[in-house]
Amino acid sequence: MATDEIEYNAYYHTLQNKFRRKYEQALSRCWMICVPCSRALRGLNITEEFVELHILRPSPSFSSHYASTDEGSSHIFELNGDSLILHKAPVQIAEKYAVKILSVESGYNKEYQQYKILITDKPLSPKYQSQPVEDDGIQLRKINSLADAVGFLTHFPVHIEVLIKLGPELQQLCSSLLSDSLQVVREKVHDTMSCYWMTLLKTHPLDRQRDAHFQNLLSISLENFIMSRLHDLVFQMVCNKHNEDDAQILGLVKELASAGVTADQLGAPEDFAIPLPAAVVELASLDSLNCPVDKLSCLRTTLDLILAELKGAIVDAHSVLSKDSQMPTLMTDDLIPLLVTVIIQAKPLHMASNLYYMENFQWTLSPSDATSFSLVTFKAAIQELLTLKPKELRPRSEKVRRELRLEDLMKVTVEVGQRFERSGERREEIPISPLDRQMERITAMIEASTQDLNDETLHLTEDVDQNKHVTGGFLSSLQSNLGTCFTNQEEY
After folding, report:
1. CA distances from 188 to 90, 193, 224, 225, 280 (A)
2. How far apart are CA 320 and CA 292, in angstroms?
3. Are 187 and 199 part of one and the same domain?
4. Which InterPro entries does the record cross-reference, listed alphabetically (predicted)?
5. 67 pLDDT exceeds 90?
6. What totals of helices (H) and strands (E) does the chain contain, helices first?
7. Considering 114, 132, 150, which residue would you say is the last residue of a domain?
8. Which of 55, 85, 273, 458 could potentially form a cystine with 263 if both were Cys, beta carbons 3.0 to 4.6 Å apart?
9. How much is the pTM?
10. Average pLDDT of the residues in 45-57
11. What is the mean pLDDT of the chain?
12. pLDDT at residue 253 greater than cutoff 80
C-alpha cells in the first residue's frame, strides 16, 4: 500500500515539485517526512505552512520527540509506537490529538544516509480537515465477489460506454484464444485488462486517478468482470491441461472417502476430529464459480468455517469445565489434516485446475493478504493429500466414529454416563474434549427423541384403553395374525 500511496499521493507529488528545495533539505538532513494518505487530503490546499508542519526534525530534549520545521518549531510531537501525539501547538487543543502511522518507508539520500517517510491516516494538525466527497462510500468498498466487482464498475455512469465496447472485443478475443497456449492466453487477457483499466481510470478526476486504493478496486473489479466473460473457454483449456492431475486427485479422494478416513488418521489430534459439514458444503461449490475472486473467496470461507466450527467446539467443551481447566490449543500444523479431510469429503472434480486458474488468472492478490494465505494453504493440503496411501494410514482412534451404529450408540451412552454423578453433576476429574462434548450432544438428542417416543406411545396406549370396547376384537385379531404383542416390543 505504501509504495503506491507515495507514488500517487498529491501532497508528496507537490512536495517533490513545487517545494523541491524543502524536500531536498529534508533528505540531506535525514528529517522525517510525514505523508497523509490520499483520502485525508481531499479538498486541502498544499501550502508552505502545510509542508513545514509535515517535515519533522528530532528534538534535542527527548529522543522520542520531533518538531515541525517552520520558524520557531510551532508544533511538537511524540512518537509513541504507531502514533504521533501532538504535545504543543500555537493554539490550545481541547482534546488529545493522535495521528495513526499506517506504514513506514525508508530511503537513502545522496550520502547513503537513511531517512524515513511516514504514511499517516490524517494531517498532523486538527486545523486541516479533509472535505467529504461523494465517492467516500466507494472508497470503503471491498471486492469479495463478482457481484461486488460488477456493482463497483457500474456505479460510475462514465464506465458504461467503455464496458459496452469491451463486450464485442472479448468475443473476438475468445475466437483468437482457441489455438493459443495457456501462457499466451494469460498474456493476451492481461494486456486487454491493462488497456481497459487505463481507459476507465482516465474517465475520472485527477485526484481519484492518483488514489492507490481506488486503482486497486478498479483492477480487482475489471479483472474479475473480464474473467467471468472468458471463464467457460479459459477454464476448459485449464482443465484440458490438468486433466491427469485432476483425475489423480479425484481418484485418491474417492479411495480415501471409501475407506472412511478421518482427520486423526492424517495427523490431527483425535479431540479435533469432529465433523465439519459447513466447510464441506462450501468447498463443494468451487466448480460452480466463474471468476477468480469468487473461487478465492470460496477457499478462504472454507478455512474460516473449519476454524469457526472447531473453535466453537473447543469453547463449548471448555464451558462445561471448571475455570481452572486449560482450554486445548489449535496449532497451525493441525489445520492441514483437517483441510485434507474436508477436501476428501467434498470430492472436488477439478482441484488442480482450480488452483492453477486462481493463481494464474488474477493479478491483484497481495502476498500478505489473507486470501493469498488461503491459496497457499490449499496447495500445501493437496501436496499432503498426494502423499497419502490408504493402506498405510495409522489406525483410526476408537474415540472417532465416522458413522454411529447401534452398538456404537450403546457404547457412547455408557461412556457419557460415566462422566456424571447420579445427581447429574459433572465429574470434574474426567477431562472432556470437543469430540467428547459432541458425543454428549448426540446422546442428549437420542434421549430426547426416546422420551418423545415414550410420551407418544403412552398417549397412544391411553387412547387404546379408552376405545378398547370398540377396537378390542380388531387388535386381538391383529396380534394373533402377527404372532406378537405390542407391549412386548422391548424383547426384540
Report:
1. 58, 9, 15, 15, 35
2. 43
3. yes
4. UPF0507/Ank_repeat_27 (IPR051248), VPS9 (IPR003123), VPS9_dom_sf (IPR037191)
5. yes
6. 19, 7
7. 132
8. 273
9. 0.61
10. 95
11. 80
12. yes
